Amino acid sequence: ISGVGDDATIECPNEPVFSTPSASDACGWAGLTYVDTTTPGDCPQEFSVKRTWTAVDSCGNSSTASQTITVEDNTPPVISGVGDDATIECPNEPVFSTPSASDACGWAGLTYVDTTTPGDCPQEFSVKRTWTAVDSCGNSSTASQTITVEDNTPPVISGVGDDATIDCPDTPVFSTPSASDAC
User: Fold this and answer.
1) Separation between Cα atoms, residue 127 and residue 4, nearest integer Å
2) How many Å apart are CA 160 and CA 59, to the nearest integer?
3) What predicted TM-score, i.e. pTM, was given to this entire model?
4) How confident is the model over 90-148, as pLDDT tens digits?
5) Which residues contact 27 (CB under 8 A, 6 or more apart)?
6) Alpha carbon of residue 128 to chain centroid
7) What single-letter DSSP state applies at residue 157?
8) pLDDT tens for residues 48-86?
């Protein structure tokens, strides 16, 4: 049997492609058949296929040769649709993008964790949302978006009376304004 390829390792989603050997016999005809044996790997997308060729001549003499191709999944999933970092004004609340995860070899789950960092005053803060995508082989990737909440708007004073002129002996009477702040 000649032309049997070397063993190889490939990355999913590629499929095994075996060599195309030939059989020859010094005394005449030789037939060539093969059998594939699949062995599971460490996760659903990983496996190996061993192809064993058997050459048989017209007198029943035989020989075998084999090639094994191993399929691995070492590529992490891809997270897409993560928004840009942003700065907003309070009292608005952070609204994050809604990304998705995909994996070339199958399923990918997506989770997130928020980390809040205080700002210079109680109303200012930033929230960093970190997404983690994990595929069924345990490969993972992360992406994050940070939204910062600032308070740059001054409070509003309302209820201030108009300027006035009074005659003595009257005593000045001032309005009773109030102050409000959106944050």
Assistant:
1) 58
2) 114
3) 0.80
4) 999 999 999 999 999 989 999 999 999 999 999 999 999 999 999 999 999 999 999 99
5) 57, 58, 59
6) 16
7) E
8) 999 999 999 999 999 999 999 999 999 999 999 999 999
